[in-house]
Amino acid sequence: MAAAGTTRTERPDGKIHGAPQALSGDAPVRQASLREHNLGLVLRHVGAAPRPPSRADIAAATGLTRATVSALVDDLITGRLLTEVDPAPRTGAGRPAAGLVLAANGPAGLGLEINVDYLAACVVDLAGTVRHRAVHRADQRPHSPAEVLTGLARLAATARSAAATQNLALAGTALAVPGLVTAAGLVRLAPNLGWRDVDVPGILGDHPALCGTPLTVDNEANLAALGELHAGPPGPANFLYISGEIGIGAGIVLHGTLFRGARGWSGELGHVPVHPDGPACRCGSRGCLEQYAGQEAILRAAGLAGHGLSPDAAIADLVERADSGDPATTAALTGAATALGVAVAGVVNLLDVDTVVLGGVYAPLAAWLRPTVEEQLRRRVLTAGWSPVTVRPSVLGGDAAVVGAAGSVVRAVRDHPARWLAAIT
Amino acid sequence: MAAAGTTRTERPDGKIHGAPQALSGDAPVRQASLREHNLGLVLRHVGAAPRPPSRADIAAATGLTRATVSALVDDLITGRLLTEVDPAPRTGAGRPAAGLVLAANGPAGLGLEINVDYLAACVVDLAGTVRHRAVHRADQRPHSPAEVLTGLARLAATARSAAATQNLALAGTALAVPGLVTAAGLVRLAPNLGWRDVDVPGILGDHPALCGTPLTVDNEANLAALGELHAGPPGPANFLYISGEIGIGAGIVLHGTLFRGARGWSGELGHVPVHPDGPACRCGSRGCLEQYAGQEAILRAAGLAGHGLSPDAAIADLVERADSGDPATTAALTGAATALGVAVAGVVNLLDVDTVVLGGVYAPLAAWLRPTVEEQLRRRVLTAGWSPVTVRPSVLGGDAAVVGAAGSVVRAVRDHPARWLAAIT
Questions:
Q1: Pick from A215, B34, B101, B366: CA 20 to 30 A from residue A26's CA?
Q2: Does A401 contact chain B (CB < 8 Å)?
Q3: What DSSP element (H or E) covers B55?
Q4: Which of B62, B180, B352 sits opposite A261 (nearest CB)?
Q5: Cα dihedral sign for A411, A413, A418, A419?
Q6: CA distance linking residue B231 with residue B234, whole number of Å
Q7: Does B337 touch chain A (CB under 8 A)?
Q8: What global pTM score does this model have?
Q9: Which residue of B has its CA nearest to A23?
Q10: What is the DSSP letter of A205?
Q11: Which residue of chain B comes nearest to A17, CA vs CA?
Q12: B267 close contact with A: CB closer than 8 A
C-alpha cells in the first residue's frame, strides 16, 4: 500500500535499527548529524527503558559522556520531549538522581480515519497513550469525497481542541483511508468508497483544523499494522495484519518493517482469488476474498443484511447471535473463516510469516473465526507440521488504524527529535 | 526458504549497501575492520566499473588516498582477486596507468543442483563467467538420498578437476535442493523427491570432492532468484522468481534482497491454493498450484505423460508440439498458465512486485504461458490498470539455480574479500 508525507517512519519500535545515513557507509560524519543521532539515541533509550533512567544510567547504557548526556537531556526537556520525575527511594548512599520519562504534555499525533461506515479521530501522546478519541458512525458511501472530508475535519477540530485543553502540541496528522494512496496523498482507488483519484491533501490541507502541521495520508491496513507493530513486543516481527471491514486489507510486516511493495500497493488481500470462478467482485474480477469474508458478505450469509441496522449494530448483533450458537450465524462465520484461511494459507506458504493478526471487525469475531482459519492453515501450509502459525486478534481491536495513524506521527518525533526541536524553535 | 553455511550473502550486487557492522551504529571502528571495509570497497568498485579502472580512478571514486588504494590493490592482486590489464591507448600526456579487472584465474564457486529429474554442477569465476557446466539427466526419485548424493559427488569431482585445470581455486560449494532447508543444511522436506530430514552436509561433507571448502545448502528457487538478481541490472529489484519444475518454488526479491521468511520457509508458491476443493496434492492439501501447473501436470494434460520419454525430452516434445499449434498442447499450456496467473495475481495483490520471472521449464515455455498469465493479472490485480506487471522468462533459463548457487559463493568472496585473503594465507 502506498504512503505519503514527511512524518512517516517505518522502524519506530524504540530500538535502534542502525545509525542515520551520515553515520554509516562512506559519508563523512558532521557534528550536526552526530548531535541528531545522539538526541535520538537518548530519547529512544528513555522510551524503551523499563524504569525512568537517570542521566548517569543513560550515559552508562549509551557510552556517551555524562556531560554530553546532560546537555542532550536539557535540550530534550526544553523541547517538551522529556520530563523529570521524582526518583524512587534508594537504600544505598548518595542523593538519588531524578529519573526521565517521555513528556506527557509535549508533542502528540492526530490520527484520523475514513472508513466505509465510520469516521474516527484520536490523539496519542509521545508515550503512546491515547488522550482523545471520537467515532462518527455513518455510511460514507452516499456522500461525495468533499462531504466526507468536511465531516472528518469537524472531528479533527474537536480533537485539536481536546489536545490543546490537555496542553499537548500536535506534531502532525496522519489519515487512514481504505484504499490505494500515493506518496503525495492522492487516493488512487478506494473501491468500497467509490473514490478514484481524490486529492485529499488538496481538499483538506487548507482546513483550519489541519493546516500548520504536516498531513500524511496512508492506507488504513498499513497504519493499523504499524500500530500493531508498536503495541507488540520489540523484535524482528513477521506478521500479516488483516483489516476486516467492508473491504479487506492487509499490512505486511517483514523483519520488523512494514513492506509497502514496489510501487506502494502491497496488502490487497481482499482481492486474492479464493474461488477463481466465484461471484463477481466490485473490482471487476471474480471470486475475490472480499466476496466471501468481507463484512457485508458475512452479514448477508448470516441473514442480517438489509435489516436497517447500522453496520456497527449489525456486527454487535452478529456477535450476540454467534454467542448464542445461532446456526445461520455460525455457518456464515465458518464460511468466511474458511475463505480467509484459504487466502491466508497462500500468504503463509509464500511469505512464511509466523503470526496472523485479525483486525477490524475480525477482532471481535476472532473467537469464532480463529479455529477454522487455523484448521485451513494446518491443512494447506506445507510447513504447518513443524512451524505453526499464531492466529490472534489485534491488540488494538477496531481502533488499530486510527491509533496507528496517530502513533506514526509521534514515532516520527521519537525517531527524529532534532527535526521537532528545529521546528519549534 | 531456508538456508545455510558461512558463505551466504544476500546483497551481493556489486553495490555498496551500507558499511559492515563495525562501521555503522554505535560500535567503535577498529583498524582491521577499516581495512576489511576498504578492501571490499575497492573490489566492488572494480567489479562494477564499466571499464578497467586505474588505481588513481579508484582513489578518485572512493575518496581513499592513492597510497591506501595502491596497498589494497596489491593485497587484492596477491590474493588472486584482481588482475592488471594493459591500459587503453591514451591521447593525452603521461604514461597510461594499468587498468584493474576481477581475476579470471582466482577464486571460483562450485554450484551443484539436485532436482527431481536431473543433477547439475557448474563453476563460476569471480567475474560471474560460467567456466564449467555438466548436467546428468535421470529421475532421482527411485534412489535413496545417499545414492543421489553419491551421484552428485561424482559431478562435483569432475567440476573440481575442470576448475583446477583452468587454474581456478574453489572458494566453496553451494547446493540447490528443491525443498525446505534449514540454516544448518538439513533438508526438512523435499516433497517431490520424497526426502524428509536429510542431513546433506553430514552425508556429503567428508566426500573428497567437497571437503576442505565450505558447503552451503539452500532452496533451489532462492538460489535461482539470487542468480537472476545478479544477472539483472543493479537497483532495488522487486520480483517473484518462479521455478517451474516437477514442483513449483519461488524466490521473492524485495527491495533488492532475497526474502526468506520468518523461519526460512518462504516461496512455497506450488502449494498456494488455486481451487480449494481441487485434486489432492502430494503435500496433503487440495487444489495446490502444482496440481495444475507443475511439469508433470502439464505433460499429463497434454497427453505426453507415460510415453517413456525422459522429462527433458518430454519438455522438448511439448515445445515442438506447442510450436506446431497442437490443440491438446495449447490447451494444456493455457490451463497451466491460467492456474499460474490466478496464484500470481494473489501474490501481486499482496506484495506489489513489479516483475514476474518465469524460470525452470517455464523459461522455454514462456512464449505460450505469458499471454494467459498476463491476462489473469490484468483481470485480477487491483492496480493492473495503472501499475502493470512485467512477466518475462528467466535470463539464466533452466540453469538459474545451479549458476545462482555458484554465483552465491563468488559473491560472498566479492563482498568479504578479507575473509578470502585470510583463508588463503
A1: B101
A2: no
A3: helix B55-62
A4: B352
A5: positive
A6: 9
A7: no
A8: 0.88
A9: B24
A10: T
A11: B25
A12: yes
